[in-house]
Design brief:
alpha/beta; 2-enoyl-CoA Hydratase, Chain A, domain 1; Lyase 2-enoyl-coa Hydratase, Chain  A, domain 2; 2 domains; six-stranded mixed β-sheet; 12 helices; about 15% strand; binds ligand LDTOBESC; lyase; Enoyl-CoA_hydra/iso; Probable enoyl-CoA hydratase echA8
Length: about 260
């Protein structure tokens, strides 16, 4: 069992949970914390008993951004040679579905971490922003790209150029989050969503995720061709036979993830 110092992990109902835990710094994402998050994600990816990964923070902050105190003294040569933040791409490459449950601040790298996840659920207390410009930098973990795809150019431009935060309702209206729930219900709801996904056939959920993600990277015609081929491939699984047989037999499916 790995000992983590800046995150907490637990496994419930085939869901691998990662709770960011650096309360003294509002979960600011320093190297230690991100290394631990990525290590935990790798562990859950390898674990056949896990079907979805849930990432959450505290009531006050999902994460207040990349660690400014750690970044401040770095030189251009440091950031370039070390390819600062490139490791985070590993989360985007996760093949199992990932869910972010956001309460409080999700700023800069915190907003980017949430956007690296597949499903984004927000508490009514959530505040999203890309305030890097106020620090004399720009988003560096995909914020200018993923935020723009999520909320469109006009809102993304305003947020990235002014650093303005948006609340949960505005984030939902703009399409950044799938749903807003009362803060007291966030974890319960997020667990429900994650457990629902984890209860599906794992290979089929992974195919569904890959297919949706393809829509961000290719033309419509290519995307539809990709989806059709993957759809055909689902018929090679035992879970397709089981899922359809269960419907016909009027019983819940018992997927065995093969
Ligand atoms: C550059 C790239 C690629 C990515 C980035 O993410 S840059 C960072 C973007 N995030 C920000 O600019 C937000 C910074 N934080 C704040 O503006 C405020 O902390 C707040 C509005 C989120 C909350 O304000 P509040 O007054 O409630 O709390 P503080 O006293 O300011 O914070 C408590 C404690 O946490 C430390 N903290 C907060 N955010 C960070 C951070 N991103 N990096 C490092 N440390 C952070 C803050 O300094 C304070 O600790 P001390 O009391 O020890 O100073």
């Amino acid at each position: 069992m790995t000992e983590y110092t800046t995150i907490r992990t637990e496994q419930v109902d085939r869901v691998g949970v990662i709770t960011l835990h650096r309360p003294e710094a509002l979960n600011a994402l320093n190297t230690q914390l991100m290394t631990e998050v990525l290590d935990a994600v790798t562990g859950y990816e390898r674990d056949p008993g896990i079907g979805a990964i849930l990432i959450t923070g505290s009531e006050k902050a999902f994460a207040a951004g990349a660690d400014i105190k750690e970044m401040q003294p770095q030189t251009y040569a440091d950031t370039f040679a070390g390819d600062l933040f490139a490791a985070w791409d590993q989360l985007a490459q996760a093949r199992k579905p990932t869910i972010a449950a956001v309460a409080g601040y999700a700023l800069g790298g915190g907003c980017e971490l949430a956007m690296l996840c597949d499903v984004l659920l927000a508490a009514d207390t959530a505040k999203f922003g890309q305030p890097e410009i106020k620090l004399g930098v720009i988003p560096g973990i995909g914020g200018s790209q993923r935020l723009t795809r999520a909320v469109g150019k006009a809102k993304a431009m305003e947020m990235v150029l002014t650093g303005r935060m948006i609340g949960a309702e505005e984030a939902e209206r703009a399409g950044l989050v799938s749903r807003v729930v009362p803060a007291a219900e966030l974890l319960t709801e997020a667990h429900k969503v994650a457990a629902t996904i984890a209860g599906m056939s794992l290979p089929i959920a992974m195919m569904a995720k890959e297919s949706v993600n393809r829509s961000f990277e290719t033309t419509l015609a290519e995307g539809i061709r990709f989806e059709r081929r993957i759809f055909h491939a689902t018929f090679a699984t035992a879970d397709q036979k089981e899922g359809m047989a269960a419907f016909i037999d009027k019983r819940p499916p018992e997927f065995n993830h093969s």
